[in-house]
Amino acid sequence: MKENKLLILKKSTILIVDDDEQILHNLKLTLSIFFDTVLTAKNGSEALKIYEEVSSIDVIITDYVMPKMCGYVLCKKIRRIDNDIPIIMMSNYSEKEKLLKSIPLGLIDYLIKPIEYTTLSTTLLKIATKIKSKSLDSILLNDIEYSFIRKEIKKDNTITKLTKNEALVLELLITNKTNITSVDQIKYALDTEHNKSEQAIKNLFYRLRLKIGKNMIVNNKALGYSLLCT
């Protein structure tokens, strides 16, 4: 079942960024099994140049600490261009400061080296879910159907249109439905330059719950929000 979900990656291109040649080589060998094309870069500057020149990059996995341009700066620059491309950050250390600093970048995952295969496999499933949601016309969530193209939900033959922000938040929760989506991630997705207030976020979720069902979104206090669906 897991293998079937990962088949969608076979049509995708991934860019791996790391200044450690051995790690870069090993990751390329492993990820070549899953992805159609695997590109590599040895630092953030080289990666940004490749990203700007190659229009077909679907996923980025980058180290945090690198020469010339670190992974954090690289991700910030890419997010100004594309707020939706799946990005995974790697680090040698589980430093709280780096983790918190990276939250607003809307990362798919934050991996601690050395990366175990089971951990990487879980991350690949998250990527596959993200890519699949972008390619689908619609998805079934319990008793409602959501259209990614029309930004509307269908429930009991009744169609309800979502606002731009409501659709953006719902799609973020769908992409990350196996995990809790933090308030910081939601704020950044809604506006990369100006943080939405806590009350504005609560009001947005109140309106969204009215449209899709109040029990479908769980508020995990002090952590964030998640979807409760099969």
Using only C-alpha atoms, the radius of gyration works out to 18 Å
Could you state the oligomeric state of the chains shown?
A: single chain
Give the helix proportion (percent range): 40-55%
- Strand-residue proportion: 15-25%
Description:
The strands form 3 sheets. Strands 2-1-3-4-5 form a 5-stranded parallel β-sheet, sandwiched between helices. It has a 4-stranded antiparallel β-sheet with strand order 6-7-8-9, with no helix packed on it. The chain is an alpha/beta fold and 230 residues long. Helix 3 (44-53) runs parallel beside helix 4. It contains 9 helices and 11 strands. The longest helix is centred in the middle third of the chain and has 19 residues, at 117-135.
Tags for this model:
single chain; 230 residues; alpha/beta; 5-stranded parallel beta sheet; 4-stranded antiparallel beta sheet; 11 strands; 21% strand; globular
Give a concise summary.
This protein has 230 residues and is of the alpha/beta class. It contains 9 helices and 11 strands.
Topology:
Blueprint lengths: L1 H5 L6 E5 L3 H11 L5 E5 L2 H10 L5 E5 L7 H11 L5 E5 L4 H7 L6 E4 L4 H19 L2 E4 L2 E4 L4 E4 L2 E4 L2 H12 L7 H8 L7 H15 L4 E4 L3 E4 L3
Parallel strand pairs: 1-2, 1-3, 3-4, 4-5
Antiparallel strand pairs: 6-7, 7-8, 8-9, 10-11
Helix pairs in contact: 3-4
